[in-house]
Structure prediction request, 416 residues.
Amino acid sequence: MGRKSLKGKDSAPVNKTRHIQVDSSDSEYEGFVDERSPASAKASGKASSDLKSGKKKVSFESLKTGRKTSFETPAAKGDWGKGGKDFNAGKAGGKGSLPQATAVKPRLTEIELKLELELPKNARLLMDCEAAEILQEIEEHKTILSEDPKVKFPESFNKVLQYTKFGGHYINSQSARKVLETLKINGVNDGEICMIGNICPETVEEVYALLPSLKANKHKNEGPIREVLASLAKVKSSK
Amino acid sequence: MFFHITLERNMQLHPRHFGPHLREKLVAKLMKDVEGTCSGRHGFVVAITNVEDIGKGLIREGTGFVTFPVKYQCVAFRPFKGEILEAVVTMVNKMGFFAEAGPVQIFVSNHLIPDDMEFQSGDMPNYTTSDGSVKIQKDSEVRLKIIGTRVDATEIFCIGTIKDDFLGVINDPGAAS
Prediction:
């Protein structure tokens, strides 16, 4: 079972001021001692899955003081049994997974846009204007269907329809989509294309400010983006 | 962001619905069960666009209900971190303001509102710049960036910011900074 220290820093033998509970059962992490706050129960649920896989995420002090040092790792390596049963503070144990999230912060936008690739392969990203057209069609069908009292549709549908129309910048969505598709060759992914379509930026600077992930290929895509913005301006409806 | 996705679901139907309109009943039940719900994976299901396929029904032992695997396509909405959205302000208070973008509620904390905007209480609480040129109040349209999301069974809740460039109140189609 791998024992990873979070930041790789070995601290001196730890001052065990907090009381330690060693759980004898490997599977029951939820039954650990301190339910200090409701948040901790949730957070520890997260940590418990990591521990089940045998990883060690012990940086309690770091979170309290805001530093990112690993704490108790040598102790953890030696003393605890198999799967890291040190849950002296459920809060801390759970938050052991958090420092990883903050370390990744600067690259968040890139990662988020790449998250879309995690969607099932048959998912097709829609711009707001395209979604508006689809929902409009559905609404027309539903008005026919709604004569049947058994058919109801959720209130949220109207809210969403209104929202898509609110962002209705283009005369029609096909022309906008056609223009934006040309960016695909320059390494702009689907998510970024949709965002450009939704935001309707005026200048290239705006695009780079709002989509920092595009900056990586600035030398490649600046010209095409400029052209696309000019073409989109022609397709915009006067609002 | 919106997307069009194919999903599959096992629908259970009571034998009393069997008859010539079985398919319609199944589709109606599917719509009732799925539209307006949320999930972590695909977010908020707005509407079903079409039912692709209904598989053969399997009778469940003991109960007599029949399970049909249904494949359908729908429009879903899911906010992503880092996404830029335009939302309408619904409530303003000294902790920040709430805005709505479709089915999604977004909260912008006062820490993520530019420092030059101050909270003004009153009949219409609002955030205003020191020179009074920009105001955020109920029903204002703002462009914001999502920095965190939480998905529930029935709704999606986000945290947003307007502290970056090109974010904030939308006065005209062009000026948002």
Remarks:
- The interface with chain A takes residues 1-6, 28, 31-32, 35-36, 41-42, 44, 46-47, 49, 75, 77, 80-86, 88, 100-103, 141, 143, 145, 164-167, 173-174 of chain B (CB under 8 Å).
- The CA atoms of residues 5 and 110 of chain B lie 36 Å apart.
